[in-house]
Amino acid sequence: MSSTQAPMLSAQNVAVGSIRRAEVRSYAGRLYWLEWRPQEQFHVICSLVNGACIDVTKKPYSPASKVHEYGGGAYCVTDTDVVFVNAQDQAIYCQRRDAQGMPQLLLARANCRYGDLVFDAARSRLLCVEEEHDKGVDNRLIAVCLTTGKRQILAQGRDFYAAPTASLDGRQLAWLSWDLPHMPWQQCDLSEAILDVHGLPLEPRKLGLLDEAFAEPRYSPSGVLYCLSDRSGWWNIYCARHGDLQPMGSLKADVGGLSWRLGQCHFDFLDARRLVFSYHHMGQGELACLHVDTGLLQSIAPAGHWWRSICCSQGRLAALGDGVMASERLFVANVGASMEVLLESSHQHPSRMTVAQHFSFTCHDGGLGHGYFYPPVGPAVNRAPLLVRAHGGPVSASTGAYSSETQYWSQRGYALVDVNYRGSSGYGCAYRQSLHQRWGDLDWRDCQAAALAVVQNEAVDPTRMVIRGSSAGGLTALNAWRLSGAFKAATSLYGVTDLARLALQTHKYERGYLQWLVGDLEQHKARYRDRSPMYETQAGTGAVMMFQGVLDKVVPVDQARLLKKRFRALGRVCEYVELADEGHGIAKAYNRRLQLETEYAFYQKVLAG
Fold first, then answer.
1. In this predicted structure, what is the pLDDT of residue 108?
2. What letter does residue 9 receive in the DSSP assignment?
């Protein structure tokens, strides 16, 4: 190793260095964000004061919402406090913005969770989603007085609510609502209402078209309602004028992403005439400023970044993004000036770094798929083993942003492919819609096609290919391994194994999702069975590894336990690691280290054979 070359990343480096930031907020010129610290195993709300980072919240409080199981919108900032949902009891607390004193309880109700917290400054109250788990699961929109904790119901009767937003003068309220079997990006309603003297909505009216999908309603400083809609075939920005929604441009790109989590913000207002937004197009992320009066569009960010959260305050922009050289970067800027990096995660020396190469490939049926290729930077070999990765969702997407886990594999000699198979977001609605009733078939075939395309164009060994996936990607990986014959091994991390069982067991938020992804369960029982690894009947070759959290409510633990039993009965090699203290994901540092080291040893053994 040369003196200028950085040491190889260890599994411990990846595990403890995986600090994740989200939900950037700004109030009265001060920045806030939510931070997950895996080594300490808790969330903290941070703030930047005179150039120094301080922890506003402290143990034992850990701000995190569990609404819809995925959470989001866990805090907001008021004139005096940071108001947050505590992970353990899902109650709402108020903490002084200067971090002094202990949090004070604002609202706690038995069996209730809260998320999507928004400050309604004109009425000194909190707007949020309340989710009650009793005999069933009921969702509603509520307001909470910040001085008394008194609770008002603003809207109820629909299966789901999200994204409450009030105009600055306190006269108008807008929100999203939808019903099963839809997910919010498939079909939801955007409602707006005048508020009465008690702050309750009067005669709400629905905006937009029938069967339209919306996201992120937000009022401008002048009181005009803006939102995201996919009516053009791309997620673009619209504003409500003259009783209808008018497009603010016509980008052939997706602004923002899908609403898996609450509290997302991909556009905000610098002032009444300018807004800043992030978008994705053909694997690239951009940040731009739109002059709403003239339509002038101005790029304002460095290239090679994917933006997850933005906010504006007092004419300044703050944005949280992931670059190709470092992730979790927090930028600030006066628009028109260069962006200043306030915080970023550590990253590797360029001599030890692999960088994403976006590519397109031809699928088995002649369609076009997309992905990212990462060449190895580890020990030189004639033809490197290939690790194919299938993202979860399954209509989410991978980006080309820096990932310490990607560097971990690359430094050990693996080439990698992240496949944005058809159905992935960020390539327009038609691309995403192509997965309709084809999940469990189209996705794994696209992964196989991506792997074969890489083999043809890169120095990759076609006899040493493995595939992995998490959650929905676990199903993709297992199906690719058992049905394609191209992969020597597969790893499923808290992955789906039995589609019919999942349709009957899963939580409320995704209860109707499989109807769109696969089809009606009663009408298509054979389809559900054929696409489920659980019903494999052949002995086969190769090996499987599974990681599963016992506390998982999204993909229950018996999905993995029963598949392990079935595979072993068939004589298939199946290694299984059960994590007693994890839910849907591997969040704790010591578990992340265990997973990486075990998975690496598994591939080395399988590929050596």
1. 98
2. P
Two tokens, residue 132: 């009650």
DSSP reduced 3-state for 287: strand
Q: DSSP secondary structure string, 494-542?
A: S----HHHHHHHS-GGGTTHHHHHT--TTTTHHHHHHT-GGG-----SS
Mean pLDDT (whole number) for 314-328: 87
* The two structure tokens encoding residue 356: 């994403």
> In whole angstroms, what is the distance from residue 326 CA to residue 406 CA?
12
Contact 191, 178 (CB under 8 A): no
**Which residues on adjacent β-strands are paired with residue 87?**
none
Q: Is the pLDDT of residue 478 over 50?
A: yes
Separation of alpha carbons 414 and 465, rounded Å: 10
d(CA 245, CA 236): 11
- Which DSSP helix (H) or strand (E) runs through 226? strand 225-229
Residues 444-473: pLDDT tens digits?
999 999 999 999 988 899 999 999 999 999
CA-to-CA separations, 296 to 245, 267, 289, 315, 319, in angstroms, rounded: 20, 16, 8, 18, 21
Name the β-bridge partners of 161.
177
The residue with tokens 């992995």 is: 468
Q: Strand pairing of 543-549 and 573-579?
A: parallel
Angle in degrees, 0-180, between the axes of helices 442-457 and 472-484, rounded to the nearest 10: 70
Q: Is the pLDDT of residue 335 over 80?
A: no
**Rounded Cα–Cα distance for residues 603 and 576 (Å):** 14
HSE on the CB side for 198, CA within 13 Å? 8
Taking residues 36-52, report their average pLDDT.
88
Cβ burial, residue 555 (10 Å; 0-12/13-18/19+): buried
Q: Looking at residue 314, what is its pLDDT?
A: 84
Instruction: Note the pLDDT tens digit of each residue in 72-95.
Output: 999 999 999 999 999 999 999 999
The answer to whether residues 272 and 221 touch, using CB atoms and an 8 Å cutoff, is: yes
Query: Would you state the pLDDT for residue 3?
Result: 43
Q: Single out the residue of 110, 77, 72, 118 nearest to residue 91, CA to CA.
A: 110
In whole angstroms, give the CA distance from residue 142 to residue 394: 31
CA distance 517 to 507: 16
**408-442 burial string, b = 16+ CB within 10 Å, else e?**
bbbbbebbbbbbbbbbbbbbbbebbebbebbbbbb
Architecture of the domain whose range is 354-608: 3-Layer(aba) Sandwich (3.40)
Q: What is the DSSP string of 558-608?
A: HHHHHHHHHHHHTT-EEEEEEETT--SS--SHHHHHHHHHHHHHHHHHHHH
Is residue 160 within 8 Å of 177, Cβ to Cβ? yes
| Percent of the chain residues past pLDDT 90, beyond the cut | 78
pLDDT at 567: 94
Look at 151 and 38; give whichever has higher pLDDT. Answer: 151
Question: Structural domain boundaries of the chain?
Answer: 266-341, 354-608
pTM, 2 dp? 0.93
Nearest C-alpha neighbor of 306 from the set 282, 326, 286: 286
Reported residue count of the chain is 609
Residue 30: how many CB atoms within 10 A of its CB?
Answer: 14
Q: For residue 607, give both structure tokens.
A: 């590929």
CB 149 within 8 A of CB 114: no
End-to-end CA, the chain: 29
What is the average pLDDT value for the chain, to the nearest integer? 93
